[in-house]
Write a structure and sequence with these properties.
MetI-like fold, mainly alpha, 73% helix, globular, single chain
């Protein structure tokens, strides 16, 4: 009887709470659908305006289709060279950030350093520091060091600006790698550098790919840093060359701007899809302890 009572009560609770779960799920879908619509509308405007013969700020189906906007921007000065500059600077910053994050995060994860907590708190604070707050002294430093208008120096600064978050993220990935694997390697005579290079680094590759993608996406859309540190038009990345479509007195070439924006986003979207397929599910370390 007691079992029946408990079962009945449980069933009653399930029946009563079911409408609440349905309402919560419905509200969740409504909120997510609204957010998706907010992000989808600018994308739809960009697609429609890029092929519209008479584009405007109004979102709607194009009156007549044309590819003249793409033809007008497909020049080395507007598309090819700026996108190449973006690839060089952003990919370089991503590689540098991923490599330096691994070297900095490994001792923070594996050793009981004296100033580890203050350093981690400083790194966490640096992740929230706005880049605009330090651009004036950085500009003065670049002028004094004669590094202004240098793609290499700009790449290094972009890597340095994303390094704090890269260190924090990489440390969390290294924490997920069982230290027993390294202890077994140390017993066999491997040094800390050898265990990092031949054991930790291969297991950390998916995590470093995440850090690299985050850095690439962050720096790809960075307008302020290259706008301040680069002065030659031929060295400007694609994020800065978007000014080409803005004229005087508020005039904007909407069709060319939309076409340029589509081409500008394609490399990052393609990279994300390729890496997500290649790295999907590889960061699983549970099987590494077997055998």
């Amino acid at each position: 009887m007691s079992g029946e009572r408990r079962g009945g009560r449980t069933g009653a609770r399930m029946v009563v709470s079911a409408p609440g779960r349905v309402a919560g799920a419905f509200l969740t879908y409504v909120v997510l659908g609204g957010l998706a619509l907010v992000f989808l509308l600018p994308l739809l405007w960009m697609v429609f305006a890029s092929v519209d013969s008479e584009p405007s700020l109004r979102a709607g189906l194009p009156t007549s289709l044309t590819l003249d906007h793409f033809t007008a921007i497909m020049t080395p000065e507007i598309v090819y060279r700026p996108i190449w500059n973006s690839i060089v600077t952003c990919a370089g910053a991503a590689v540098i950030t991923a490599f330096c994050s691994m070297l900095a995060a490994y001792p923070l994860s594996r050793y009981n350093l004296r100033f580890r907590k203050p350093f981690l708190y400083s790194v966490l604070f640096a992740t929230g520091l706005p880049i605009t707050a330090i651009m004036v002294p950085v500009y003065g430093m670049f002028v004094q060091a004669d590094l202004l208008n240098s793609l290499t120096a700009t790449t290094l600064f972009l890597a340095a600006s994303t390094l704090p978050f890269g260190i924090w993220l990489t440390k969390n990935f290294i924490d997920g790698i069982p230290i027993a694997l390294e202890e077994a390697a140390w017993v066999d005579g491997a040094s800390a550098w050898q265990s990092l290079r031949y054991l930790v680094a291969p297991l950390l590759a998916p995590g470093l790919a995440v850090v690299g993608i985050f850095t690439l996406v962050t720096t790809w859309g960075n307008f302020f840093v290259p706008f301040i540190l680069l002065t030659s038009p031929e060295k400007m990345p694609a994020a800065v060359r978007v000014f080409t479509f803005f004229g005087q007195y508020g005039s904007v070439r909407y069709g060319e701007l939309a076409a340029y924006s589509l081409l500008y986003t394609l490399p990052v979207v393609a990279l994300y899809m390729v890496v997500s397929r290649a790295m999907g599910g590889r960061f699983a370390l549970g099987g590494a302890m077997k055998g």
